[in-house]
Amino acid sequence: LNGDYNPLHATPAPGEKMGFGGAILHGLFSWNSAAHALLRLLGGSDPANLRAFQARFAAPVRPGDALETRAWRTGAREGEGWEEVRFETRVSPGAGGGEARVVLSNGRAVMRVVEVGRGGGSSKL
User: Fold this and answer.
1) How confident is the model at residue 10, as a pLDDT?
2) What residues pair up with 83 in beta bridges, in sequence order?
């Protein structure tokens, strides 16, 4: 889907050879999972409510790892209705057999916060 045909993402042998212990997921999976979580939690599941999104890839994600994104509203405002949100995405300890580790660090999003809650309902993504 993204044009990355690296066998590291499809078969275990290259990942084992490179020291990852097997295949790893594309970084875009972690990236998009975090963006989706933020939009679902704070942005009413509307992509128009996300103006900027950045993070550092900190560790690989393996198939079966469960991801958890934690977010903090900083209170910093950028123009009419836009707010800075900091976040971190990690593998949930014990979930899916993965060890706890941060996979996206230094996360920063600029969002229009329209809904605060656990999410729910349908997503527009």
Assistant:
1) 81
2) 77, 111
- Which strand (E) or helix (H) includes residue 97? none
Helix or strand holding residue 120 (H, E): none
Could you report the per-residue pLDDT of 73-125, keeping only the tens digit for each? Answer: 999 898 888 999 999 999 988 756 567 899 999 999 999 999 665 554 444 44
Which tokens in the block code for residue 71? 């977010």
pTM of the model: 0.82
For residue 100, count other CB atoms closer than 10 A to its CB: 11
**Long-range pairs, 11-14, Cβ under 8 A, ≥24:** none
Q: Which amino acid is at 115?
A: E
Structure tokens, 15: 């990942």
Closest to 123 measured CA to CA, from 69, 47, 54, 28: 47
* Residue numbers annotated as active site: 4, 9, 24, 27
Residue among 77, 82, 79, 71 nearest 49 (CA): 82
Length of the chain as a residue count: 125
